[in-house]
Amino acid sequence: xxxxxxxxxxxxxxxxxxxxxxxxxxxxxxxxxxxxxxxxxxxxxxxxxxxxxxxxxxxxxxxxxxxxxxxxxxxxxxxxxxxxxxxxxxxxxxxxxxxxxxxxxxxxxxxxxxxxxxxxxxxxxxxxxxxxxxxxxxxxxxxxxxxxxxxxxxxxxxxxxxxxxxxxxxxxxxxxxxxxxxxxxxxxxxxxxxxxxxxxxxxxxxxxxxxxxxxxxxxxxxxxxxxxxxxxxxxxxxxxxxxxxxxxxxxxxxxxxxxxxxxxxxxxxxxxxxxxxxxxxxxxxxxxxxxxxxxxxxxxxxxxxxxxxxxxxxxxxxxxxxxxxxxxxxxxxxxxxxxxxxxxxxxxxxxxxxxxxxxxxxxxxxxxxxxxxxxxxxxxxxxxxxxxxxxxxxxxxxxxxxx
Length: 403
Ligand code: EPS
Hints:
The protein is α+β, with helices and mostly antiparallel strands. The protein has helices spanning 30-41, 49-52, 82-85, 108-113, 126-132, 139-145, 150-168, 193-199, 209-224, 254-263, 283-286, 357-380, 385-402, and strands at residues 3-7, 14-20, 24-27, 57-61, 63-64, 67-69, 73-78, 171-179, 182-183, 231-238, 268-273, 290-292, 298-300, 308-309, 312-313, 318-324, 335-337, 344-346.
């Protein structure tokens, strides 16, 4: 069983993450983890912070000389912002006077840094978090609700993706299929692994050059109006063996696990497996008929189900998508009520990204990889990469013999 967890605040010293249950023998280096993290920092519509935030990862457990040991993976990603926030975010108490001193160059954000945040942003965790945790200041809520934490998901997801590739040849791709009103055609083919590698150079991670331009225009339009904008990302996993997940128990269903993992990404409000429910189709049209292919193999006429039936992978490409709402830190601040004095006012705004859909694709890919790695280990097991490979080979042979 694979377990993962993170801790750390957006403007704290660092994010820390633990990934427990990965086998020994996976080859990985800091540079590899760094490559995955770099993809998350890219993307048109990101705010000022991404220009200086380095996402410098350090492996501090579970890896020796470039190979996993089977012990829990421990990862640290430091925040470049920390020196400016050392006082207000200090884990130890600080004097009241220290909090009146503005660090840095005194821009609007720095002056506001030490003041209590009492005007909750509609759409963010501020309001419910302040009430649920008995806080007079939204700072502790937004520090942890911040999507900064997704850097660690991508960091841990790097290990899951390297494991899937090295153990089973499973590779994932992710791309953006809509931003605002600009959408990729529904029938656009899923990029191959090679094509997806090129997408990293596209500012909106979209496989269609014309639609990419429309997406950029949508982001520009939102930014010029002091607004934010959302969109849709797609994730596909190639070479997933049949039978990951299970129909026998609710919490073992692969689709439920993927849906939970994707829905847990900040700003995600919709998750779709394959083509979703397709309520406009009849049953005879909506399902993927089972046929004999040209070389006698068992295959399908289509993949509406997104490679998952009955809570299990069915041997087709696993294909899922999720929609991100526009970021809730809207520059043209929305109406709210100041919880310090109960008066109507404008919500907090310091700085924000205009659009985080492009990093969203990279984060979604990491989340799906973590779930698939867990499901693969559950099915074939093994404490070492070689054991997993052998167990998988034996399982694939049994499947081959049946079909
Ligand atoms: C975020 C707000 C912005 C983003 C941040 C997530 O940070 P700040 O408030 O410091 O400008 O840049 O995302 C990241 C730092 C990141 O690495 O993704 C938020 O409120 O969720």
